[in-house]
Amino acid sequence: MDTRKIIDDLLGVSLSFLTPYYKQGRGNATTARRIMTGLGQTEMNTNVVAYDEQSFSRDLVETIKKSDLLHVLHFRRFAEWLEKNDYQVEKPYVITSGGTDVNIDIFSSEYKEKIGQVLRNATAITVFSDDAKQKLAEVYPEVTEKVHIVKQSVWFPHDASSNSTVSFAEVGPNILLPAGLRPVKDVLFVLPALVKLKEQFPSLTFTILGAPLEKSVVKAVRQAQEKYPWIDYFEEVALEEMEGVYLQSDIIINTSLSEGQSSALLEAMFLGKPVVARNNGGNQSIVTHDKTGFLFENVNEFYEQIKLLLTKDEIKEGIALNGRKYVEEHHSLNEEIESYLNLYLQILK
């Protein structure tokens, strides 16, 4: 359907976007801000409810009640918010996976049923990849027909700067891992390989960048910093600064045990940076091994892949170019927003 026709048909429709985070420097906030930016190009009446950042109030409830349609982000957090506030949503809603919810939470006996209730009540469900859709079908076969795949896009704020408060060594190579500090991100998994690489590339640095979410992981990272002075850790950096962070880096990596669809990898690829990622379903959805990046199963494979990128410029340049082309062709903001608009229209009709 023609995008202009969809926008015209949705003229005046009131939509509330419910996200756990909007101000904090977390992946869900980035997703919410990106989608809201795209929806801002339409003539819908939109507003944001950051349900884990705002207090539950009469005004919040009124905002939801006045909406024609809701778009909700994150299965588990939304289910917990409803339960905590003893609230039931009476408006039709689309619910989008936050990543961890579909990779971990739906398999937990603690969350499985409460998430299932939220999914069964949803009018439509969206996930970022076929891998996520298959996982949902495995746990909740009854909702399969209303699950849609909508790929994430790449978006940097208009006031994004190539400068950053985070500065890396000018020599390098500088290896960057953007990830919140929690067990599923497994940020020190490749440390043995990096120690070995440091012996061959004396100027190598390793930087972890992300929110300090789990005390045990933060402690482990701090201990690694004390032992290896070439490791840096920075807490949350504003999205407006992330372009500058990527541009200072030589290789961006992902070590997660599981992923929804890494916005950090997509952003790095869009900016022409080579990526090396742990082999899981979410990373497979955006990285084609040996073409748009590298996927590793173990520490030894990671070591060999990084070494290859640091010693073979033609391979590094080819991977970076292919990655950028892939993101430009398959992860545009316009396509992502058009997919959501089409879904909204189907629901309201």
Automatic annotation (TrEMBL):
- Xref: InterPro entries: Glyco_trans_1, Glycosyltransferase_G1
Entries under SUPFAM superfamilies matching the protein? UDP-Glycosyltransferase/glycogen phosphorylase (SSF53756)
What residue stretches are annotated with the Glycosyl transferase family domain?
Answer: 175-325
**What keywords sit in the KW lines?**
Glycosyltransferase, Transferase
Q: What is this enzyme's EC? A: 2.4.-.-
Q: What is this protein called?
A: Glycosyltransferase
Taxonomically, which superkingdom? Bacteria
Instruction: Please provide, alphabetically and separated by semicolons, the GO molecular function terms listed in this UniProt record.
Output: glycosyltransferase activity
